[in-house]
Each structure stands twice: as C-alpha cells, then as structure tokens.
Write a structure and sequence with these properties.
By secondary structure, the protein is of the alpha+beta class. The protein has helices spanning 20-46, 57-85, 87-104, and strands spanning 2-3, 9-10, 107-109, 123-132, 143-152. α1 (20-46) packs antiparallel against α2. The longest helix has 29 residues, at 57-85.
Length: 156
Amino acid sequence: MTTGPGGAKVGTAWGGGCTRATATQIGAAVGWVTLAGVTIAGLLVFDNAYSPLGESRLAGISAASGAGVVAALASFAATRWVARRSRALLVSVLALATAAGWVLMPQKIDVSESWVPQPNARYACNGWTFRHYPPATFDASATVYCVGFEHRIADG
C-alpha cells in the first residue's frame, strides 16, 4: 500500500488485495479444482482392492469424497484470505499450489517387463508408491502408482 493525497491508503497494482467478490470467485474456482483433483486421487487410493480401508467400495468412495470436500474448503478459505491481502502473494501461492498438485497427482509407473508380472522395473519413484487393482474386477492386472517424482531406470 502507498499513501495517496490526504494520507489515504491506496493499493498498487500488485500490492493491494482483491475485492471481496473477486476474492470469493477466485477462491471458489480454486476450491472446485481442488475438489476434483483430490477426489480423483483419493479414488485411486481408497476405491481399490489394495485400499487401506479394505475392499469396501462405499468406504473408499466416502473417504475419497470426504478428503476432496475438506481439501476444497481449506483451499477456498486460504485462497480467499490470500487474495484479500495481496495480488502478488496470490499469484505466488497459486503457482506453488499448481506445482504441488502436479507433483502429488498419482502417475502410473512401469514395474514389470510385460503384462506378465516379471520383476524388471523400467521406472522408479522418489516418493510414495501404492498398488491399485480395480474394485469388483477379477481379470485385470494391478497398476503401481507413484506420488512424487518418477525417473527412468537404465536398461540392462
């Protein structure tokens, strides 16, 4: 903020915050994106034959949806608060959140030679891995997902 004529505080283009309505709209947009991303990732983790909640499909869907709603409400409130304070801080927080979402979204990694489970991994994960097997399926293969950075392993 800078001081204008008569001592009134005047916001600069990047220093001042957004209006209440604009901050609410930005927060809502971020909340919806967070809801979708966290729910999709949660379904991979919880709606799964190898789920930490067991094979209950209702429990998996409920946990994924609940995690999405909690994350969406938290991101809405945080984004709205930051947007009211400073536009520069808002841009920084959104860039950081986008990068974190990109890294934390589960990615498939190849851990076998072919569809026959032969342990000859082609990729490794610097982070957390989990196995996913589609629920209510009897003839599929399990997929390994990486939450973090994956890197290719040299052939040989």
